[in-house]
Amino acid sequence: MAKRNVGIAVAVTATAAVLVSAPSASAGTGPSYSRSVVTDVRTAATFDYAAGEIPENITVNPDGSVTLSLLGSCAVCQRTHGPELMRISPSGKRTVLVTGQEGEAISGNTRGSDGTVYYGVWAPGNADRNGVYKLLPDGTPQRIAALPADSGPNGLAIDAAGRTLYIADSLKGIIWSVPVSGGSATPWLTDAALAPVPTEALPIGANGLRFHNGALWVSNFNKGTLLRVPVTATGVPGNIHLVTGGLPNIDDLSFLTPWSDVVFAAQNGSSSQNGPDRVVVIYPNGTYKPVLTSADGLASPSATAVSGDRLYITDGGVPEPHDPKLQTARINFAALLAGAAH
Questions:
Q1: How far is Cα 205 from Cα 323, in angstroms, rounded to an integer?
Q2: Helices (H), the chain
Q3: I want to staple 189 with a disulfide (CB 3.0 to 4.6 A). Which of 99, 120, 133, 175 is the partner?
Q4: Burial 56-73 (b: 16+ CB within 10 A, else e)
């Protein structure tokens, strides 16, 4: 087992080195390859949609467990169940870490380098609850940053130093920042590129958020864009760079490795009946191609996570017959490299 893990680590590192500097490809979604980038798709866990077990976000922990945000109810459903933050062990044991209140959602979650769990509570109209929380060592939740009642906290990210927590606001077109120890949340970046489209059935702007290679990467759900915002030496935002566009209902995202700019992103089309349910791989030059679709069982995919050669996908199961689940799959590094080299 030890030798196998070393082999995977070497393969991942080698892949990352190539993919960070992958040559440019032609415009569009990239060519089609006979070898699948993602294989061995399986259902790792199923959930009860009627009870509000609707997966939204995922963090993979060093011990192989996962932390899941469960919405309680979806944005287009009646909110009759409280949301949950749940940990699932490698053996499948489920532990509910937090139960929220009816009418709100637990959106993004992330993990600090010291193991602290942070999560967002989206409590529409409730300034006493809306904001970002952390779990104290005894498991007690503590709100560390309040957000305005009309804001929509979604994706969370922590900088490399482990000092600053960033929050994507899906309603106000803002990325907020707050010290991980807590305090007043301040608007770190406000821009039209982060804003929702008011005419959409589900007006959601800034959604997924990751700190990676000295920048914040953020998806805009309505505008179908993936953006990269450098964090300067003084901590202020640099110019916004468009990584790619044309991905309606792009939700949360993850990176192949801490060194690689290759992205796996979920397109949550069936959540608003506005596009396909897909997971796409996005190369550093902005080209992309689907690697999973509804034919692989995707049902409102909302987030991805990568650990070694394993890809995790959360499915909310919004469309009937409602099939919320956690899927896993294997990343085929040879096929991924082939896609980057053409």
A1: 25
A2: 2-20, 333-340
A3: 175
A4: bbbbbbeeeebbbbbbbb
Identify the DSSP state of 30: -
Tokens at 212, concatenated: 């990676």
> Could you tell me if 315 and 55 are in contact, meaning their C-beta atoms sit under 8 angstroms apart?
yes
- Distance between CA atoms of residues 118 and 112, nearest Å: 8
Q: Give the phi and the psi of residue 77 in degrees, each rounded to 5.
A: -115, 165
Q: Phi and psi for 289 in degrees, rounded to 5?
A: -155, 145
Q: Is residue 265 within 8 Å of 250, Cβ to Cβ?
A: yes
Q: How are the residues of the chain apportioned to helix, strand and coil, as percentages rounded to the nearest 5?
A: 10, 45, 45
DSSP string, 109-124: EEE-TTS-EEEEEE-T
More confident residue, 81 or 242: 242
Residue 241: which residues within 8 A CB-CB, separation 6 or more? 227, 228, 229, 230
- To the question of pTM greater than 0.85 for the whole model, the response is yes
Q: For position 93, what pLDDT does the model report?
A: 97
- Bridge partners of 270, per DSSP, are none
Q: Measuring CA to CA, how many Å separate 82 from each of 52, 73, 137, 215?
A: 7, 8, 23, 34
What value does the mean pLDDT of the chain take?
A: 89
Here the tokens at position 59 are 């963090």
Exposure b/e, 235-257, CB count within 10 A at least 16 = b: eebeebeebbeebbbbbbbbbbb
DSSP 23: P
CA-based nearest residue to 227, from 189, 279, 273? 189
Using an 8 Å Cβ cutoff, are 194 and 218 in contact? yes
